[in-house]
Write a structure and sequence with these properties.
The protein has 7 helices and 2 strands, in the order αααβαβααα. It starts with a helix and ends in a 6-residue tail after the last helix. Helix content is about 60%, strand content about 5%. The protein has a two-stranded parallel sheet. It is mainly alpha-helical and about 120 residues long. The radius of gyration is 17 Å and the shape is globular. α2 crosses α3 and α6 runs antiparallel to α7. α4 links the parallel β1 and β2.
Amino acid sequence: VPDWRRLIQFGLRICELPSEQVAIIEEMASRYAKPSRVDLFALVLAQQRKAILLTDDGDLRKAASKEGVQTQGTIWLLDQMIHQGLLDDKKAQMVLRAMSEKGTQLSQEEVAQFVQRWKEPRSKP
């Protein structure tokens, strides 16, 4: 279970949705059986803020696509962090392996593929 206080120290913000948007979540729940209510809260929040929804969950990605919300996954986020100089390749590999051990939505094959990609030398821009 994540330590929410620590995540808040790293910039996580707690957001509330007005009752009209909670009603939208209930309506979505009747259309999309698989994503949880918590996932649908994230979807509606991303929709409201015109933000990218970060998820590796296939069912949530399908629902987001139908709702016109762009999604990206863990690999994209790690790539962005590397590109911005916030994370080096070795640390990204370590993070991805740790996530994999904790039960990420990515298959072991996908994890191995991305770790291998980060091992390959890159040309500097």
